[in-house]
Amino acid sequence: MSIDQVTDVQEPDVQEPKAAQGDRTLAPNSVQAPTFIKAPKSDAGADSGQVESLVADILSRVREQGDAAVREFSQKFDNANLEVFEVTDSEREQAVANLDPQTRKDTEFAINNVRTFAKAQLGSLSEIDVEILPGVHMGHRNIPLERVGCYVPGGRYPLLSAPIMTIVPAKVAGVGEIIACLPPNAHEAMIAGCHLSGADRIFRIGGAQAIAAMAFGTQSVPRVDKIVGPGNAFVNEAKRQVFGPVGIDQLAGPSEIFVLADHTGDAELIATDLLAQAEHDVRTRVGLITTDEALAKAVLVEVDRQLESLSTAHTAGPAWQDYGEIALVADEAAMIAYSDHVAAEHLQIHTENDKALAAKLSCYGSLFIGEAASVVYSDKCSGTNHTLPTMAAGRYTGGLWVGTYIKTATHQWLTDEGIQQVAPPAARQSASEGLEGHRRAAQIRLDRLGA
Q1: Is 345 one of the annotated active-site residues of the chain?
Q2: Which end of the chain is flanked by fewer CB atoms within 10 Å, N or C?
Q3: How many Å apart are CA 270 and CA 302, to the nearest integer?
Q4: Set 195, 346, 350, 386: catalytic member
Q5: For binding NAD(+), which residues are annotated in this chain's numbering (predicted)?
Q6: Each residue's pLDDT tens digit, 367-387
Q7: Is 209 part of any known ligand binding site?
Q8: 438 is in an annotated binding site
Q9: Of all helices (H) and strands (E), which one includes residue 215?
Q10: Segments in 79-161 forming alpha helices (H)
Q11: Same domain, yes or no: 56 and 81
Q12: Does the pLDDT value for residue 2 go beyond 60?
């Protein structure tokens, strides 16, 4: 339903922005604050200190006690009493065999699309070797990681796309060994998804204890070099605490979607897309940024209408009430400025000149240009990755991709001519800094050339 089909609409109260919303909601001084047709009631980034202390205890226990601690926490948090954590080959094969035929076809369709796009991305990563001065050669190589741990969330529903997004790009990148961990009570189809995506080993371990097991290693689970994949607040906090000895992809907050729309926006379509994302979690952040007041008010009415018949309204409804926002801005420039400030995980463009607007945006996790490009397609099967930066991290990073699993390491080599180019300034600079050892290391090679 487009906005011109909305009739008998009760005018909603316009809400002014509130300082309590946090810096992700209010624009900085350099950005004109919008008028909120609907303002969020809460800050989706708020977290409890109890999570931090509980996770710290879990990590410490797993580090010290290994499998025994993992087993204890699996029983406590997942009500799973497992003697053996690893999924056997026969169990993997059986899980695939038990997949509904159409589900398997759809899963393989998604795997192929994600693989195809990841291969194209990998092909864009060039290795270089250049001579920047006579005799001074430098370059870099793209080296796949040795072992990666992929956390695969179980969630309220079997998220069949989750293993595809983390495991398939790792396989394309050439990672030596891919470890997958998923909650013990995850749907069997999730095991099938891990298997079809290319996981080398699969473990029935969830939560912070899974992150600890992969970060430190246990009697059953090998230590990995990097941990990727989204999860709940406990998983996220565990990744934050283990970072350093192991790498992580990013710290993921609740899911987000924002839509940029002008007078051409379709209220029914926008509301549908907002609620599709809102059903992920009661803390999902959803929003509309628009230059058209009539559209803003129509979307507000349309969301409420659709919630009446949405089977997941018990999740999407609270998300919309607590974290949903509709921001009215003066013009396209204000829309761009506020959008870049929000830096939404998923950003859809529903405007008259969608591609032109897309070229002016710089802060987002993934961009969906035009009404035909729904976030749902990327969430499931179109090919771009759905593991994306949240909580304004789109200002400084992109999402999970094949490059996440590769380290780009530099190298150099010098001829005698190259030594003559760089040794003198290196020795002089070292001397001025009072680093005699550095000066000698630079000078000795030059002296030997002279000898």
Answers
A1: yes
A2: C
A3: 9
A4: 346
A5: 151, 209, 232
A6: 999 999 999 999 999 999 999
A7: yes
A8: yes
A9: helix 207-216
A10: 89-97, 101-123
A11: yes
A12: no
